Amino acid sequence: MSASLAIVAAFVMLAVMMIWGALHAMCQEEIGTRIGRIPNALIRLAASRLPREARDDLADEWRAELDHILCNTDGLPITRLLRGMRYALGLLSVSPGTACELSGSDECETAAAGYRGPLVCFAAGITYRQLDYWVKTGLIEPSVRAAPGSGMLGLYSFRDIVVLKVIKRLLDTGISIQQIRAAARHLRNHGTEDLAQVTLMSDGMSIYECTSPDEVVDMLADGRGVFGIGLGRVWLEVAGYLAEYPPVPGNSP
Amino acid sequence: MTLAVARILREFLSDPSKSRYGYDLMQATGFPSGKLYPSLAKLVKAGWLLREEEHIDPAREGRPARRLYRLSNDGIEAARYELAVLSQQISPPGQRLVRLPAEGYGA
Asked: Is B101 left (phi over 0), alpha (psi -120 to 50) or beta?
């Protein structure tokens, strides 16, 4: 009697273990594919609040850690998922000021606040439609806070506005959009302060950056018909426009 | 130096030559990610910690490369000194003073 009970018990045990194994494998699959996307999306969201220079690098680090948590730590799949969620939520719960510190950036104070779309258009002298189109086509990106799919909802830094104003001027003079694209990319890599020292010169075909009066004179001496934009002047104009409007903190809705 | 930073340095000093992953440090210190990473960034910026990418081929391993943190030479000295000072400052009154290590900045 007790022997047959033991056999039944063994069978039941075996069945439970098989079902458990199957469930375990299914859960693992689920986490590997669908559920794992939730913490990944949270990490994307957390990274979107960082200054642009540091964003991708840190997001890569966090994703790699998350991958490790989801796939290589002890515990059952749901436990690991919860662990991953806690990890991602922790990053998201960092206050906006500290979010900038995450990147070790020097420009945290200025990067943490920015200007909204309508004011940006006013200061740069462009239309809403232009701003929206330029953001969608990647000509410019709001560096304080990006808003997916909309140029108007992002938060822009002072430098972004200077660059926008320069883009507008270049467009007005009929320079090709490819040239402008290259110039915009180049200007974005300048610090806010040294941007004011730059003079952009164009002969209608290409755009040149001059940082000293000598270089400007050299270009003129070549006998080419050129026109130039002193960014220092643009910088002052933008500063003038924005003087009465304090920047909006990056954490505000 | 905040206590959070001190706690992280203490973890690194337990084996100064060892590189650590962010998640391992979270487990060792019990800090949530949102508390750990800002402190790590501060230490990296100050030059006390070095941040390196893991040397793996992500395609072959089937996972992304992780980042590793370890103490720089300056960091080891500075961390020893600062921790000694801190432990002296926050040790309960009446206890004997903690001697600063010889290789510290102040020695």
From this structure: beta
Say if CB B77 and CB B103 are below 8 A apart. yes
Instruction: Using a CB–CB cutoff of 8 Å, tell me whether A67 touches chain B.
Output: yes
Inform me whether the C-beta atom of residue B65 falls under 8 Å from chain A C-beta atoms: yes
Reported ipTM: the value is 0.80
Mutate which of A56, A61, A66, A107 to disrupt the B interface (most B C-beta within 10 Å)? A61
A104–B63: do the CB atoms touch at under 8 Å?
A: no
Phi and psi dihedrals of B21, rounded to 5? -85, 155
Q: Do A63 and B64 touch (CB under 8 A)?
A: yes
Tokens of A121: 């258009």
DSSP 3-state of A24: helix
Per-residue pLDDT reduced to its tens digit, A210-252: 877 777 777 777 777 777 888 888 888 888 888 777 777 765 5
Alpha carbons A137 and A220: distance in angstroms, whole number: 34
Q: What is the pLDDT of residue A245?
A: 78
Chain B nearest-CA distance from A105, in A, is 9
Cβ distance of B22 and A102 shorter than 8 Å: no
Least Cα separation, residue B84 to chain A (angstroms): 26
Instruction: For residue A65, list chain B residues with Cβ-Cβ distance below 8 A.
Output: 21-23, 66
What token pair was written down for B53? 């990418």
* B21: β partners: B68
Dihedrals phi, psi of B52, to nearest 5 degrees: -130, 155
Sign of CA dihedral B22, B28, B34, B39: negative
Q: Tell me: the pLDDT tens digits for A35-67?
A: 678 888 888 888 887 777 778 888 899 999 998
- By the CB < 8 Å criterion, does A79 face chain B? no
Q: How far apart are CA A184 and CA A179, in angstroms?
A: 9
Residue entry with tokens 């060792």 = B28
Q: Is the pLDDT of residue A92 over 50?
A: yes
What are the C-alpha distances in Å from B74 to residues A25, B16, B84?
A: 48, 11, 16
Show the tokens assigned to B5. 């930073």
